[in-house]
Specification:
The protein has a single domain (about 5-65, about 70-145), classed as Ferritin, core subunit, four-helix bundle (Ferritin). About 80% of the residues lie in helices and about 0% in strands. It has helices at about 5-30, 35-60, 70-90, 90-115, 120-145. The chain starts with 6 loop residues before the first helix and ends with a helix.
């Protein structure tokens, strides 16, 4: 039996997957980043993100859908590419931060697109919280990476 997902369910799942992937990428980056302060920042990003994932998961279930999970093969490939790119760059840490900023900007695009849909006020409020977290993350990454 097929169940056709609504536009809102698809969009929320895309945000959820992007958030899951970002946590995995931050946790992977913590292992290879050289600066302790940057590793602490990454851990500080991951912690609140996990509670936002739980809230997104609940919102998706409330819509009658099952939350999606990232493709592990795709994630592994992305992480390998990121590690290779970092190792080939002049400044590994700066490269890692720049890739995290780009990923956060993509999440923000997904959140903005989802907020444009006809969604419940509770979901809109949740997406507002997600957006604020992503904006704060981008700002902190830019400061820590020296991108002003």
């Amino acid at each position: 039996m097929f169940y056709i997902l609504s536009e809102v369910e698809v969009a929320l799942n895309e945000v959820l997957i992007a958030f899951h992937k970002s946590i995995d990428h931050y946790e992977d980056a913590i292992k290879s980043i050289h600066d302790k302060d940057k590793a602490i920042l990454f851990r500080g990003i991951v912690t609140p993100r996990k509670s936002l994932i739980a809230a997104l998961t609940t919102a998706i279930r409330d819509l009658g859908d099952l939350p999606s999970e990232p493709d592990p093969d795709q994630e592994t490939t992305e992480m390998i590419i990121e590690r290779v790119g970092a190792s080939l760059s002049e400044d590994d840490d700066r490269y890692i931060i720049s890739t995290r900023i780009a990923a956060e900007e993509q999440i923000q695009i997904l959140v903005s697109q989802t907020r444009e849909l006809d969604i419940a006020e509770s979901v809109r409020a949740l997406l507002s919280d997600v957006s604020k977290h992503v904006n704060a993350t981008i700002k902190a990454l830019k400061i820590q990476g020296g991108f002003h």
